[in-house]
Amino acid sequence: MKHFVALAGGSKACILICAGASDEPRETLKEYQHVFERLGAETITEPLPERPRGNDDALVARLDHATAVFFTGGDQLQLTATMAGTRFGEGIRTCLQTRGLVVAGTSAGAAAMSSTMIIGGPNEGTVRRSDVDLAPGLGYWREALIDTHFSQRGRVNRLLTLLAENPQILGIGLDENTAVSATPGRGFRVVGSGVVTIFDGRVQYTNAAEVASDEPLALFGARLHVLPRGYGFNLVTRAPEHPRPPKRTTRG
Fold first, then answer.
1. Which of helix, strand or coil describes residue 157?
2. Cα gap 138→207, rounded to integer Å
3. For residue 197, what is the enclosing H or E element?
4. Which residues does 95 contact at the CB level (< 8 Å), separation at least 6?
5. pLDDT tens-digit readout, 3-29
6. In the chain, helix, strand, coil percent, each to 5?
7. How far apart are CA 23 and CA 61, in angstroms?
8. Which residues are catalytic?
9. Which of 39, 169, 247, 251 could bridge 201 with an S-S bond, Cβ 3.0-4.6 Å?
């Protein structure tokens, strides 16, 4: 959260908190409002309870004042059904691309960032299409698909299934209390106390088009990277990066 506030402008940050994924948006907004204001940021809150609200002039105008948008957790399908394709949703995309608006989210709010998102599937399932449910996401980060609570809920099978069906995608598994600080189209760096698991979808072979949805999938040549805090990933070269070397100091 400190890193996010710093990206948003520090003491000059104005964060628009959106709780469109939450079943209890008012309580969720109060919680995050308290966190961000304690870190020195100004906040604006928006429950976004129904889709028509996403086309409201007053809500869209709030983006002019915001330096960052933060999506809370909850249900990612509820979030996309409420705001995808609305003036508010498209306004965020425009501000992200044209003036460097910082866009972030946690749990469902993070999972909804990509063009395709995972909306369900048993943690104990195998690598087969019937074990993973997909839906269109908000599309703010097109090169990747994000899964959350990754190590804690044993979700490796979900991203492997995704790679078998979409070998051009980069799968990103986020541990709890862990995030990536990303510039879409360029790269990202890991922050937090856990690890980020990267699955490079440029596989050698998959039989996804040949088997039924309830049959196990074959997958050859998938590449995996595990990155703790400070490590990065170059989205152009598709290669992990070591932490930046510490600055040298000279003492007299």
1. helix
2. 29
3. strand 195-200
4. 63, 66, 101
5. 999 999 999 999 999 999 999 999 999
6. 30, 30, 40
7. 25
8. 107, 149, 176
9. 169
The pair of three-digit structure tokens given for residue 132, joined into one six-digit string: 């993973």
Instruction: Measure the CA–CA gap between 233 and 248, rounded to whole angstroms.
Output: 24
Q: pLDDT, tens digit, for every residue of 176-219?
A: 999 999 998 899 999 999 999 999 878 888 898 899 999 999 98
Interhelix angle 87-98/57-65, rounded to 10 degrees, is 20
Backbone angles phi, psi at 83, to 5 degrees: -125, -15
Taking phi over 0 as left and psi of -120 to 50 as alpha, with beta for the rest, 76 belongs to alpha
DSSP 8-state assignment for residue 202: -
**What does the alpha-carbon distance between residue 83 and residue 87 come to, in Å, rounded to a whole number?**
8
Q: Are 170 and 199 in contact (CB under 8 A)?
A: yes
Single-letter amino acid code for the residue at 7:
L
pTM over 0.70: yes
3-class SS of residue 11: helix
Tell the residue number behind the tokens 């979700």, with chain if given.
Answer: 155
- For the chain, domains (ranges, CATH) are 1-104 (3.40.50.880), 113-235 (3.40.50.880)
Candidates 110, 156, 108, 151; CA nearest to 132 is 156
DSSP state letter for 35: H
Report the C-alpha gap between 28 and 23 in whole angstroms.
9
